[in-house]
Design a protein that fits this description.
With 101 residues, this protein is mainly alpha-helical. It has one domain: Arc Repressor Mutant, subunit A, CATH 1.10.10. 40% of the residues lie in helices and 4% in strands. The chain contains 4 helices and 2 strands; from the N terminus they run H-E-H-H-E-H. Strands 1-2 form a two-stranded parallel sheet. The radius of gyration is 13 Å and the shape is globular. The mean pLDDT is 91. The protein binds a DNA duplex (13 and 13 nucleotides) through helix 2, helix 3 and strand 2. InterPro entries: ATL_DNA_repair (IPR052520), MethylDNA_cys_MeTrfase_DNA-bd (IPR014048), MethylDNA_cys_MeTrfase_DNAb (IPR036217), WH-like_DNA-bd_sf (IPR036388). GO terms for molecular function: catalytic activity. It comes from Pseudonocardia endophytica. Keywords: DNA damage.
Length: 101
Amino acid sequence: MDEETVERVRAVVAAIPPGETSTYGEVAEQAGLPGRARLVGKILSEDGADLPWHRVLRANGTSAPHIAHEQAERLRAEGILMVDGRLPREHRRTADRRRES
DNA sequence: CCCTTGACGTAAC
DNA sequence: CGTTACGCCAAGG
């Protein structure tokens, strides 16, 4: 794994403004790693302890089971509330937003 | 070198 | 909503 890649991902995550959220896929894209969302998860799990990783959720607004509790708690501290285990689209920054009509 | 495991994503049933 | 299948990729057995 390139340190370069790791740093870019870390930078993107660190740049997410408080009160807003993003997704693994989006972070990957912004970091120049299209389609490598999984990589982002890997990186956050290893070198993301000191980052606002709680602002990063899955594309559908849910979070992985083992971090769900802490995730919800940290977000709540920023004024974001999880509804039925998922995050309302109103709080998603640049996430999905497909099918509107 | 092959196989398994994930903080993932999208499409199809 | 839930499961399958596939695509993607790094790390550890």
